[in-house]
Amino acid sequence: MQYKTELKEKFTVLTILENSLSSNLVPELAQIIAKIGAKSPKNLVLNLGQVARWELPVIAQLADGQATFYENNTSFVICCLSDSLQDTLDLTEYAEIMNMTATESEAWDIVQMEEIERELLDSDDMEFSNQD
After folding, report:
1. How far is it, in rounded angstroms, from Cα 111 to Cα 70?
2. How would you write the pLDDT of the chain (132 residues) with one tens digit per residue?
3. DSSP type of residue 19
4. What is the DSSP annotation of 58-90?
5. Can you give the pTM of this predicted structure?
6. Which domains are delineated in the chain?
7. What's the farthest any 2 CA atoms get from each other in the chain?
8. Which residues contact 89 (CB under 8 A, 6 or more apart)?
9. Dihedral sign, CA of 122, 124, 127, 128?
10. In angstroms, how far is CA 19 from the centroid of its own chain?
């Protein structure tokens, strides 16, 4: 699978350079996502702007990947879905649970807002534990 990564201060942008994501790419995609989640910056923006078609196992893998990121207190936002990708996604139960935006810039904003939210929640936790 062809892709490129771009490191930013708070996240990594993973841009898929394939026209189609078929189920045989799921293991490689899972490995790439896990590798990004294991090193800093741990937040991920997945740009699918060049992808025109994807299969259900890919969607399921991305939903699982997002869940893992959020369980680990990190962000994973998918952006730039074409109409055909969105139409396929809308036929699944994943459409309601996946974190997606129309543009990469919006995805960056979400990651940064979630980072601020986590920092605020962490500082609130520290305040409460110091009051005990």
Report:
1. 11
2. 999 999 999 999 999 999 999 999 999 999 999 999 999 999 999 999 999 999 999 999 999 999 999 999 999 999 999 999 999 999 999 999 999 999 999 999 999 999 999 989 887 665 555 555
3. S
4. HHHHHHHHHHHHHHTT--EEEE---HHHHHHHH
5. 0.90
6. 3-131 (3.30.750.24)
7. 55
8. 59, 81, 95, 98
9. negative
10. 19
